[in-house]
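I am still learning, so can you show me any protein sequence you like together with the matching structure tokens, please?
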Amino acid sequence: MKKKIKIAPSILASNFSSLGEEITNISKAGADYIHFDIMDGHFVPNLTFGPDTVKYLRKYSKKTFDVHLMIKPVDKFLIPFIKAGADIISFHPETVKNVDKTIKVIKSYKKKVGLVLNPNIKENKIFPYLNKIDLILVMSVYPGFGGQKFMKSQLKKIEKINEKIKKEKLNIDIEVDGGVNISNAKKIMQAGANILVAGTACFKGGKKFYKKNILNLKKSK
């Protein structure tokens, strides 16, 4: 059965001076998830949010909080982000000593788990864990900064992951993040992705355009 397309606006592209209001507005506009890019200035060359930011913003929306941890080490921050209100926690396998153990910790708190693939990491890196996770996040740019151009080379990776999931008859979402917009959303969805993370494409124009922006991404199919 074909999965429903979901849009996950990345608050990295929102107005930081009024984050609470931005999350309320984008939620009302039809966002399915709220995506948090958590960067540490170490694993990736930028700094963004900590657990307290997620905790503070939790009251502004009942939408799924989709937290992507671009930090190293990951393990000591799992519980703080879980307690802050994360519903999905995705991490890069190369940031932990034991992938199975990290998955188990997140699952023990009844949260969904995602594994993340940077553009230079092959899809088979995460295949051993497919029966233990809920989501695969394919990065279509190298993480660190918003506004980068989508890397077309990642479409083949998405296709291969989708084929593997179908072959194994697994219920796993494929999420894509990096340069997603209305000009490439159709190709991304055709490749097999069902969750699109978009920053600028969702927040551009201000709140009166949020609903239209989200609908345009979904209509791209």
